[in-house]
């Protein structure tokens, strides 16, 4: 399992608002290249983001499913990487001082052929990818957050 943390200079509600806006997913998730559609009840449990993964011409159409949603503290997603398998990604948001959030991202292979090659090397690769993912999330929350305010929290109410 890869565990990555970053402190973001934005309150948990703002950070969760970005996570809750499925249309921003390709802006901060490394490897996602295009959002095709977002279920209207995202980030409700069972809702999906329909996206493309990987560079053209080998990009794949796939989806990410919400497994658990506890605004503004936790979001658990299942990114699918068919035909290779599925991952489970857990974002935990913890207040860390005035207007700051500690984001912990735990990601692990949960299904499919990727389970057979699960090693420390894979964990290191995931950690590197997730470090960049959290850097991008922080960039949006800290510098451009006003343009990415999400109705996601309102949908959860």
Automatic annotation (TrEMBL):
<dbReference type="Pfam" id="PF10604">
    <property type="entry name" value="Polyketide_cyc2"/>
</dbReference>
<protein>
    <submittedName>
        <fullName>SRPBCC family protein</fullName>
    </submittedName>
</protein>
<dbReference type="InterPro" id="IPR023393">
    <property type="entry name" value="START-like_dom_sf"/>
</dbReference>
<dbReference type="InterPro" id="IPR019587">
    <property type="entry name" value="Polyketide_cyclase/dehydratase"/>
</dbReference>
